[in-house]
Design brief:
By secondary structure, the chain is α/β, with parallel strands linked by helices. Helices cover about 25% and strands about 15% of the residues.
């Protein structure tokens, strides 16, 4: 497939350029855009997601297809992304060699997620090899990839370690017919010898994160992989430090400030503390623990995210002045299907390919009644802007949100990469 060109205005205004793979509904792509990267190429396979990207990134987007906020907020628009729709396996990236600063993408998670069939490396949706191909063809200065925590499960850990080693040495390719385990052994030996050309060697970080720690009103455990080309001399790079904490939320609620801010009766509550986050893993050298120089803000809750949204009018009735804000019938609670609580971060937003059995899309109101979250509310929980239009019926809209990278989390990671590359 041909690579589209950026406009002269975009080329002159941008300092750093990216290629976005597995773009979906645009979460990580918008995060990269906000962090100051200009996309040279944006690739996506799914038809509805492509419609979403085109609707939000085409210059002069038709407002007749949307219902933007009454206050005119339009900070989600990102005109001019060069979309290449279709299978990533058919995209030739060679034309971009030497022009790409970062290759980024949320690699499809179904082979590794609890909602998938757990087929791992045998799953045809395992598209890590295509990311490595893009790296070989474009030789970017950095790589930023996101995936589910399922890759860290003991059953997948050997293959994930192989993924990290292959990213460290992407030009030491797997030969035809070679088992990945044999390739992994070759990579491990090469890394031990450490004789690779610095221009073809990457230093790799594996970063397990919780989105709530970066201002996302949602408990979302994910893994980011960040890699810098060795010849850049960025071996002492540190990942972005968390900006929010559960302890700060509990303190805010215990003091009464949280309840006063929202105009609800003071109601101190107790919650089970979460496990401490895993430290970042480093491939190739020791990574120093980041310093915590400033106090952390409180975790954001569902109430924080949606407090200014009006209550949905009714089932399938769009609220005037708000986009994708309509009620949906049938919400209920039963064993194993419990709702989100207003005063905690939301449960992990899921794509719902096989249904959403845990109640992740259900909300408990203050009076104890329950209803489904609207698409707009879920988009808020994923930190999408209010004018980001999503293509398709409700199920397709929710799928795009569930598969996305929360923008606030993606922007924190992208900004840390940009800072390193701009130093």
């Amino acid at each position: 497939m041909a690579v589209p060109e950026l406009s002269s205005a975009e080329l002159s205004s941008a300092e750093l350029f990216s290629v976005e793979l597995f773009t979906g509904g645009g979460g990580l792509a918008l995060a990269m855009h906000r962090a100051g990267f200009a996309h040279l190429l944006v690739n996506e396979l799914e038809r509805r997601a492509c419609e979403t990207l085109l609707a939000n990134t085409s210059a002069g987007r038709a407002h007749s297809r949307t219902a933007t906020r009454a206050d005119g907020r339009a900070d989600g628009r990102a005109a001019g992304w060069p979309l290449v729709p279709g299978d990533v396996r058919a995209v030739d990236f060679a034309e971009l060699a030497g022009r790409v600063d970062v290759v980024a993408g949320g690699v499809p998670c179904q082979p590794w997620s609890l909602g998938g069939a757990h087929r791992g490396w045998e799953d045809p949706r395992n598209l890590w090899p295509e990311l490595f191909r893009c790296v070989r063809e474009t030789r970017p200065r950095a790589v930023l990839a996101e995936n589910v925590r399922g890759l860290l499960r003991p059953s997948f850990q050997p293959y994930y370690s192989y993924i990290l080693r292959e990213l460290a040495l992407p030009f030491e390719r797997r030969v035809e017919g070679e088992d990945w385990r044999d390739h992994d052994r070759r990579l491990a030996k090469s890394l031990d010898r450490d004789r690779a050309d610095p221009a073809e060697r990457y230093d790799v970080w594996c970063l397990p994160v919780n989105a709530a720690d970066y201002g996302v009103p949602q408990i979302r455990q994910r893994v980011f992989v960040v890699a810098f080309r060795r010849d850049l001399g960025l071996t002492d790079w540190h990942p972005p430090t968390p900006t929010h904490a559960e302890s700060a939320l509990l303190a805010d609620q215990a003091s009464g400030e949280y309840w006063e801010r929202h105009g609800v009766p003071f109601a101190p509550r107790t919650h089970t503390q979460r496990a401490a986050p895993r430290p970042p893993l480093r491939i190739g050298a020791q990574c120093k623990a980041p310093r915590m120089d400033t106090p952390l803000a409180a975790w954001r809750t569902v109430r924080d995210a949606i407090a200014d949204l009006p209550e949905p009018l009714g089932d399938r009735v769009e609220h005037p002045g708000w986009l994708h804000h309509y009620g949906w019938p049938g919400a209920r609670v039963y064993r194993g299907h419990t709702p989100n609580e207003l005063d905690r971060p939301a449960k992990t937003v899921k794509a719902g390919v096989h249904g959403v059995p845990g109640g992740e899309s259900v909300l408990r109101r203050d009076d104890g009644s329950v209803r489904y979250l609207t698409v707009r509310e879920v988009a808020r929980i994923m930190t999408f802007p209010d004018d980001w239009w999503l293509a398709g019926p409700r199920g397709e809209q929710m799928r795009q949100l569930g598969n996305a990278v929360p923008i606030a989390l993606g922007e924190a990671m992208a900004a840390a990469v940009r800072t390193a590359l701009s130093a």
